[in-house]
Amino acid sequence: MAQQIPVDPKARADDPARDAERDDFTHAVTGDVAYRRLVLVNTVFVGAPGSGDRGWVLVDAGVMGAKGSIKAAAEARFGAGARPAAIVLTHGHFDHVGVLEDLAAEWDVPIFAHALERPYLDGSASYPTPDPGVGGGLLGRLSPLFPTRPVDVSDRLQDLPADGSVPPMAGWRWIHTPGHAPGHVSFWREADRTLIVGDAFVTTAQESAYAVAMQEPELHGPPMYLTLDWKAARHSVRALAALEPERVITGHGRPLQGAEMRRALHALADTFDNVAVPKNGRYVDEPARAADGSAYAPPD
User: Fold this and answer.
1) What's the pTM value of the predicted model, to 2 decimals?
2) Max Cα–Cα distance, the chain, nearest Å
3) At residue 120, what are phi and psi to the nearest 5 degrees?
4) How far is C-alpha 151 from the chain's CA centre?
5) Taken in order 9, 247, 236, 97, is the CA torsion positive or negative?
6) Which residues of the chain have pLDDT under 70?
7) Exposure of 10 by Cβ count < 10 A (0-12 exposed, 13-18 middle, 19+ buried)?
């Protein structure tokens, strides 16, 4: 599958040799930000190694069956029995909330997400149907088989504050980046210009099983088969590029950093309609609508 915006592999923000020495099942990006790849998706750990119980935060909750892998990484990185202060979500798609209900109950933690994601996290609504006809890859064609039913964590769910703060993550703020999902958010730390992107853009061709396996770096629009408002997605990518981040950790693919990453990100933003938006597709001309016919992703 053709790359959208190729990126020099030297722009990788992870260091396999350093990760092997540390041996805690994660890939470090900064001193207090690491991620673990879970088959199709990344989950992010925010907190210094050894932070202990309630001293760290989990961003997104992986795919079904990933509970043991997430817990093993958490305990190796933060200490035996270390639970997070909270779980924060970029959005509620199946590959980001796969073990959310189990982990939240076992760890007894609050969950923070954008208010527009609440229907998909309190059991009241399912996401619109994926579009298998876009992207041209195996995973895209299989997307109708992916779960769309909502999880129900309503007893622990809290809306992210309107002031942009992230209560359990000092120094970070959330940015509304809709398009891939109505309440999709990214997390930004201006002090060191670190950006946790979620799926607003990704660094692999997520539609392609081969690309997902190889993890060759590129800048790519959000996964096509689950992106339901392309106009909003374009606006989100341009807003994130304007931040001029130093490093990005995406929901799919390797983290990238530096001038080469920024070059590619601006190229993606500038040519989004040509390289990221599929030529034809269920939601290309008109965004998805909710079951009652209302706008799927109402504006802020």
Assistant:
1) 0.93
2) 53
3) -90, -5
4) 17
5) positive
6) 1-3, 21, 135-145, 206-214, 290-300
7) exposed
